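user: Please review this fold.
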Amino acid sequence: MVHCHGCFDIVHPGHLRHLRHARSHGDLLLVSITGDAAMKKGTGRPLIPEELRAENLAALDCVDWVYIEQAATARELLEAVGPDVYVKGKEYELNNDPRFLAERAAVERHGGRVVFSSGDVVFSSTALIAALEQSVDPYHARLRQLLSLPELDGVELSRTVSRFRGKRVMVVGEVILDTYVLCDRPDVAGEAPVMTLRPLERRMYDGAAAIIARHLAAMGACPVLVTALPRNDDGGQGAALRQRLLAEGVEVRSIEVDAAIPEKQRFLVGAQKVMKLDLLERLELDAAQQDALVGLAADTARELAVSPEGTRPGESGCHGAIIADFGLGLLPQGVISRLCPELRKHAHILAADVSGRRSNLRMMRDLDLVSPSESEVRQAYGLHDQSLPMVAWRLLAETRSRAALISLGADGVIAFDRLAAPVNQEAGFASHVRGEHVPALSGHAVDALGCGDSMLAAATLALCAGGNLLAAAFIGSVAAALQVQRLGNTVVSATDLRQGLARLHSAHLAFEPAEVIESRAAAGGPRRVAAGVGAGVGAGVGA
């Protein structure tokens, strides 16, 4: 009987020649493989689970028996089996590794002999896997590069998320009710060629500034929402929203307005949105209401800035403030121009985001973080043909902001910050900004609603917790990846973030059948994926 032992993670031509050579030395060939728990080949190894590795070997005609060995070496198994011949690779002939020497002693103690294979064709599973990873698309390569950086170490990012707890953050902005109307299959009306929808179920989500505050609370912070709610609303939508948010740890402070909470209805067939209905009444704040809103926000920031018991001396109690302008009239230019300096006095981190054609991105000033999409910032400045770094520089220079997270949709996000001094490029141009690209971390988009809100909440808290801009962008991208895989505007919690980060750091190269990739492209899914995950779930699916 002949015995071979190894990992056999990828069975390559070198393995085949090795096993055939071994079989030629006897009548039966036993191949034992190192179990998953005992394999020490680096992060993500083994690539193939032990059961499938055993199945691969059992399918070879030269192999008679396969055994999964859960010990770190084959020494104990060799003592029990006592093979006549133990065949090892050519590289072990001059190897003084004590683990191999112990195996050799066990074989020879039972009268067996150790034979080395010819080594005429030498491959390494470890080297092959590394080469495969080097040849993957740029998005995979960029993600691997990011995960190797010290500030994006999994343990450090998890600690940053843990420091979210107790951070006092205020949010100023409109609230919206996002209603999903789930419908039966559409039909064509009899009286005219128009589509007919039959509602089956209605789901209502708190949106805009309300969902940002809910994200903050779920991630461990202590948020206060400053907004506008309907006057004389006892038992109405405003009172119900206040109670829902309070139950989730969000304090609500509001001015009264003579308008209902804006609602956006989306009609879906399955997970596909087929129509959107905006039930929006734009707010028109008079001078007194504008004063009341600015005063309420300033008082809230000032109150949060009073250091509570247990806070280190000299540390402000207002860790962060977020201005969320959704273009519905609550934050006109005059209000934003007054809000920014008031909140800047008290908040460690001042962040902002915009949404909609009538938002006021250009009026925001002295921010630590501004988080628009590429289309929003290009539209705000009318820069549709210039390079994105030039657009980012214009944004940071005009708003006097430290950094920007500019979303590229399915292509991820770029974190821009200003350079202390311009850097000359090869073409003779001087660059005033530095950009770090974080690829999209989700391989399958279910619903893009609310991705920017979750990213803003997580990135702001990361800055409040002492993380740098790249860490904030990465954690924010994880939040967005989690959000995009859910139907509806649901919250992303600190636990969700930790699990998402853990999946990314344990990710490894995986393969998808070509027909899956083609079907996804035909359905209008993301053009690229970010990370391979061996289990086939989590932040991304490998191509």
About this structure: The chain has a mean pLDDT of 85. The CA atoms of residues 305 and 346 lie 6 Å apart. Residues 166-308+320-348 form a domain with the UDP-N-acetylmuramoyl-L-alanine:D-glutamate ligase fold (CATH 3.40.1190.20). The first helix runs from residue 13 to 23.
